[in-house]
TrEMBL record:
Residues 16-70 form the HTH cro/C1-type domain. Keywords: DNA-binding. It comes from the Bacteria. PANTHER family: DNA-BIDING PHAGE PROTEIN, TRACRIPTIONAL REGULATORY PROTEIN-RELATED-RELATED. The keyword Flavoprotein does not apply. It comes from Dyadobacter linearis. This is HTH cro/C1-type domain-containing protein. SUPFAM superfamilies: lambda repressor-like DNA-binding domains. Pfam families: HTH_3 (PF01381). PROSITE patterns: HTH_CROC1. The keyword DNA-binding applies.
Amino acid sequence: MEQTIEAKIRSVALNIRKIREYRDYTQEYLAMKLGISQNAYSKIELAYTRITLERLIQIAQILEVDSVDLIKGNSEELVRLHTSD
């Protein structure tokens, strides 16, 4: 069953949040690295803001994951994949 665009956006946002939490990074830290406010970053994780491909790649680099993993994977798989890092 194919996900709707909105469901996929929420899934990507959840993946970002789970990996951020696994890395023990705060929203403030990611916001600072991205050059945006913590409030703006929070909206990314809540899927209130649609992010650009450039922003997705930036977040993936900070989180030390492949941007494709953030799109395709589910959060539990991502954490499991990166526990050996």
